[in-house]
């Protein structure tokens, strides 16, 4: 961090939550007895039972004995679409029983299986369901009415009446519950909550497409207004993304979704008050208000000067639409625990990179909020047809440019906290950004955008790897400064997320 420049709270927070070999031993171990539930316990005598609409029989969850779900014959067919969207976005796709408890594993990956992202739906004009806010009850696969009334106008106002709200019947609101991840990851939990919410969002866009809908993620909004409208305690939880669900045919094809002017938060000055909770400090400093300023996003980062003679490898293979396979992929998705250390084929990696980053290309829908700030690197260990070393990936060109050749397995193993996954991976995809510059453009809000975007793209990597029968696992625990050194990035650049890809051990 430049000592001549006053850092923002976003930069301060990133620096304060870096892992280092010296700091790791100082972090207290989580108290197992205080582990929070990975979901809210919603209960209603007459919920909307979503289980009958699932495209497979025998789902083991559902209403409890004291519940009498609403009569499905009186409900709109749209409820079936909502059931499948919610299930394939963040529903229970696996159950592990133990003598003490049951573990409910979900469609989207989560660090430590803590699942800090809650899903709320604002519904209007759906036959058989009262207008209002409805919570998604994960353990029962139900909708539970929380507040009645037409909330859509107030929500749209919080998003400065974005045109995507016009005429919609359903808006998905994703919020992060701080303590679920903080219990294990302390203040760094905020990073992981944003990444995990990006994972959920990564599923949502595909789940909506299955039902002929277009999910339109919007991460810029008037925070105080939306928090108040949803009656959320900001010390416990914060809204992170709103997603109107529109009929796909109604979405404009104008290709300016990623270049239009956007609102920005203020740029704060660090440090916050000594007694301020760091997570609350970064979330508050990155909040926007109704009269927030407007900014134009910067141009995408260019290849470094003086590198014109760098080795360039065009990537030829692409991956077509896998939307028809999405339900099957997401149900069997699990993070890889161990790689064999064998090589993978470059054509498979080409396809994975193509699929994941097509969402980083300008188009009518703003999938990524800070796309111009993202930098993408690959550390190649064992990929047939690619020289081992550090590469830069340019998504618009679908090509790799060599930064430095050499075997980096020992360094990345240490930089990923000694995780064997990093050492045995065929390659690692790393997202990063010039954090000070991003803050100058988007204010402290940039911190949210960069991690949400990285999580979103990380989930696209997950889905594409499963399709290509590759092993894949997200890595959010790493020694930050060591990774800056490996990638030859300045110390004030933020490493946001790492995805390890490799040859998985065959499951038993």
Fourth-level CATH superfamily of the largest domain: NADH Oxidase
In oligomeric terms, what are we looking at? single chain
Question: Can you tell me the CATH class of the largest domain?
Answer: Alpha Beta
Lateral arrangement of strands in the main beta sheet: 1-6-5-4-7-9-8
Alpha-beta classification: alpha+beta
Assess the beta-strand content as a share of residues: 15-25%
| CATH topological fold name of the largest domain | NADH Oxidase
Number of domains: 2
Number of separate helices = 15
Report helical residue fraction. Answer: 25-40%
Radius of gyration: 22 Å
End-to-end CA span? 48 Å
CATH architecture term of the largest domain:
3-Layer(aba) Sandwich
Largest pleated sheet: 7 strands, antiparallel
Low-confidence stretches: 253-258
What does this structure look like?
This protein has 508 residues and is α+β, with helices and mostly antiparallel strands. It has two domains: 9-28 and 297-502, NADH Oxidase (3-Layer(aba) Sandwich); 35-251, 3-Layer(aba) Sandwich (NADH Oxidase). It is 29% helix and 22% strand. It contains 15 helices and 20 strands. The protein has a seven-stranded antiparallel beta sheet with strand order 1-6-5-4-7-9-8, with helices on both faces. A seven-stranded antiparallel beta sheet has the order 12-17-16-14-18-20-19, sandwiched between helices. Strands 2-3 form a two-stranded antiparallel ribbon. Strand 5 (132-137) and strand 6 (142-148) form a beta hairpin. The longest helix has 23 residues, at 445-467. It is globular and about 65 Å long.
